[in-house]
């Protein structure tokens, strides 16, 4: 569990988020959009008596106002869909796991046994 605190100087938020520096919040946003959390946030903002006090924008467009500098994890998620091209394939599932490990420079040590459990399925589409 980790808290994500607001940027200390709210008048000077982090620059535009990009995957090279801030992969976690962008993956976080993608997951929330896929799970339709943005719709639930919008509903709460519009219908809850204290909805106007929410700090996370329903559009999930204010992620640069949060301090992501302490994040030490990467999200690896699998969302059904069609992903074509190297860039798109590296965004999801086992390909994402491989690119995340490569980015961290991880390689198994000599004699180390690596066990990975995963499930894969696909549907043929014409």
Protein model, in words:
The mean pLDDT is 79. The protein is mostly helical and 126 residues long. The radius of gyration is 18 Å and the shape is globular. The chain has helices at residues 23-34, 37-47, 86-89, 93-103. The longest helix has 12 residues, at 23-34. 3% of the residues are buried. The chain has four helices and no strands. The protein starts with 22 loop residues before the first helix and ends in a 23-residue tail after the last helix.
Give a quick precis of the structure:
The protein has 126 residues and is mainly α. It is built from four helices and no strands.
Question: How large is the count of helical segments?
Answer: 4
The general outline is: globular
Secondary structure class reads mainly alpha
Helix content: 25-40%
Secondary-structure element pattern, one letter each: HHHH
What does the secondary structure layout of this molecule look like, with pairings?
Layout: H1 23-34, H2 37-47, H3 86-89, H4 93-103
Core attributes:
globular, 126 residues, 30% helix, single chain, 4 helices, mainly alpha
């Amino acid at each position: 569990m980790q808290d994500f605190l607001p940027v200390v100087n709210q008048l000077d938020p982090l620059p535009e988020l990009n995957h090279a520096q801030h992969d976690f919040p962008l993956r976080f946003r993608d997951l929330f959009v896929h799970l339709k959390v943005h719709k639930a946030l919008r509903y709460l903002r519009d219908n809850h008596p204290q909805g106007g006090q929410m700090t996370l924008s329903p559009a999930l467009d204010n992620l640069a106002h949060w301090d992501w500098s302490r994040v030490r994890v990467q999200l690896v998620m699998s969302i059904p869909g069609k992903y074509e091209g190297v860039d798109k394939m590296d965004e999801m599932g086992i390909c994402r796991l491989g690119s995340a490990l490569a980015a961290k420079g991880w390689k198994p040590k000599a004699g180390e046994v690596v066990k990975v459990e995963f499930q894969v399925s696909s549907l043929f589409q014409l």
